[in-house]
# Entry
Amino acid sequence: MRFVVTGANRGIGLEFVKQLTARGEEVDATARDPGDAPELQALARPGVQLRIHPLDVADDASVAAFAEQLPPGPVEVLINNAGVSGVKGGEPIDPADILRVFNVNAVGTLRVVRLLLPRLREGKGKKIVNLTSVLGSIAEADGGRFAYRLSKTALNMATKILAEDLRGEGFRTVALHPGWVQTRMGGGAAPLPPEQSIRGMLRIIDGLTAEQSGRTFDFQGRQIPW
Ligand SMILES: NC(=O)c1ccc[n+]([C@@H]2O[C@H](COP(=O)([O-])OP(=O)(O)OC[C@H]3O[C@@H](n4cnc5c(N)ncnc54)[C@H](OP(=O)(O)O)[C@@H]3O)[C@@H](O)[C@H]2O)c1
# Structure
C-alpha cells in the first residue's frame, strides 16, 4: 500500500516511515529540507520503496509543487504528521505565534489534503490521518498553550468536516493523539518511546472503520472527547 507521511525527517514522522517501510509498504515521505534529513535518507536502502520530497506545509507554493511532483498513481493513506508546538513560556497570548502555529498545524494539514484528494480518490484505502493532541480537547483542557491548543482544536474540527464530507465516497478520516512521546517536541520528560506510540497508531490506522471516522483516538484506541 502507498502511504504519504509529512514531517518525516525526525520524531513521530520518522518512526512512521521506519515501521511502514520495514513491513514493505511504499512510502512518499516529506521533509522541509531533505538535504538535512540524514536519518530519513538512511532508510532509503535498495529494495525499500521510499521516496523523499521537499514540503513546507505552511507554504502554498511548496504544497503545490509537492502535489505536482508526486509520482503518478493512487495514494491509499495520508498521514498528516507535520506540526509545531509554538513558543513555550513567554507572553501567554502571543498573536503572531498563534497565527504561525495555526498556519502549520491546522491550515497546513488542509493545504495538503486539498491537493492530494485526487490521488486519495484514485486509491482503495481512502484514509486520512491527522496527528492531533489531547491538548486540543476542550473537554479535557486545563490552561495555557493558546497557540498549540487552538490549532489542534481546529484540526479536530477539520477532521470531523472531512469525515462527513467524504464519508459518502468511502473515506475514513481520523485524528490520532500519539501520547506524550520522546521527540524534540515531546521533550526529555516524555515517557513514551516512539516505537510504541507508532505501533499503536498503525494498529488503529490498519483497522480503521467507517464508524470511527470523524473521531479522535489516542495511540491505545481510547476515544478522546472534543
Ligand atoms: N511528541 C509528542 O508528545 C506529541 C504529542 C501530541 C501530538 N504530537 C503531534 O505529533 C506530530 C509530530 O510531532 P513530533 O513529536 O514528532 O515533533 P517534532 O519532533 O518536533 O517533529 C515535527 C516534524 O514536523 C515538521 N514540520 C514542522 N513545521 C513544518 C512545516 N511548516 N512544514 C512541514 N513540516 C514541518 C518538522 O520538520 P523540521 O525538522 O523541518 O522542523 C518535523 O519533521 C505533531 O503534529 C505534533 O503536534 C506530538
Observations:
- Helices lie at 11-22, 38-43, 60-69, 95-122, 146-167, 194-206.
